[in-house]
């Protein structure tokens, strides 16, 4: 790719970028959210049309104006945002539009399922391939996406944050697949914010910043701190900071929360200024606890108290009235209305407080949203910009902003830094510290053990839908938490 340029309304996403990848190479594309990584790959895959520049495959210049043309050129991409049909099973998603047949117009479902099973087995997947993917976990859906790309037998494979929702075991299986592919000569473009992966799987590293090519380095000789500095154009500390603030009165008490086959006798408390971490393996029940507290899933038993008063939370509306906020795991599907503006998204949960006789008080709405855009440093041309046009880190700030606008006393965060870069992570960490200092109680769910250990005042470990252990901050180490999570 040479001299690639792309502009969106109010934003120059790419400004003359050069990028190449060789046969049998893993070339890591690195940069902060909004640097242009995904846009560059969407141009390569035909999802976006470039404004200027050239693309050559095997030293032959080609014009890619659609995903079909990219596939015909041997290019496949696994997007960070999953592109699956929730109602269809894994095999049907993997071969959608390319179903194997046993005669003219007759789909061979047996052959389709057997091919899908082989692909998923190679990735270490164990779920039933007949299950609609909408019922699978995010990690399992990610494996279906990877299998779909592998089924194309591509010569150039782009992976955009492929391990963001995978366990350690699933990540190891994916790396084995990548090594087998590169041994066959497949070129891999790998986008990740996880620095350890870069040095383990990468051959070369290219850094983008503000839509420009900054540097390319050999992965084996690259310096970690230099790469972070090149990404951010400033020194960024990768350590997880925890502001020590006084722990105040009890804000939330959950007692005996149960949901048949999912949660068993969950009891926990969150105090003002306290960050309580929830750790555990994927599928252990962490997200299910959050959904039950927020009223998204109906519990069969249990009691919930907010500031000492028993509350019946039967819906998110009840939770919002109790001043509980929930930053969901999947911000694009569950946390944002992507086709609406930054302002609309921030104001959405507070509209009942901003209207009079059904008419929204625009001056009050603008005052709240403009302040939060400024205070949270949401990088946008204006508050009228559509949320879909912003980077992942800025989208996550919008989700946080709407609950801050609600003056939530208790904030539940499910994977709040998933898929965002190191610089944006530090801003989120600083924001959580500031909220705790103001007396907000935070329930933090994260698969990143350094994040849990660094931020939490207490850590609860969930295993098979139960609280399996609790650690004070002084006793919470990654080794102890992991041992508890696996039942060791």
From the structure above, extract its key features:
single chain; about 500 residues; alpha/beta; Rossmann fold; 2 domains; 6-stranded mixed sheet; 18 helices; about 35% helix; about 25% strand
In brief:
The protein is α/β, with parallel strands linked by helices and 488 residues long. 34% of the residues lie in helices and 24% in strands.
Topology:
Elements: E1 2-8, E2 11-17, E3 26-30, H1 37-44, E4 52-57, E5 60-62, H2 67-72, E6 75-78, H3 90-94, H4 109-122, H5 138-151, E7 156-160, H6 168-183, E8 187-191, H7 195-201, E9 204-209, E10 212-218, H8 224-232, E11 250-259, E12 263-271, E13 275-279, H9 286-293, E14 301-306, E15 309-310, H10 316-321, E16 324-327, H11 331-335, H12 342-347, H13 351-354, E17 355-356, E18 359-360, H14 362-375, H15 392-405, E19 410-414, H16 422-437, E20 441-445, H17 449-455, E21 458-463, E22 466-472, H18 478-485
Parallel strand pairs: 3-8, 3-9, 6-7, 7-8, 13-20, 13-21, 16-19, 19-20
Antiparallel strand pairs: 1-2, 1-4, 4-5, 9-10, 11-12, 11-14, 14-15, 17-18, 21-22
Describe this structure in words.
The structure is a single chain. This protein is an alpha/beta fold and 488 residues long. It folds into two domains: 231 residues, 3-Layer(aba) Sandwich (Rossmann fold), CATH 3.40.50; 236 residues, Rossmann fold. Helices cover 34% and strands 24% of the residues. The protein is built from 18 helices and 22 strands. The strands form five sheets. Strands 6-7-8-3-9-10 form a six-stranded mixed sheet, with helices on both faces. A hairpin with a 2-residue loop joins strand 17 and strand 18. Helix 14 packs across helix 15. It is globular. The chain starts with a strand and ends with a helix. The mean pLDDT is 87.
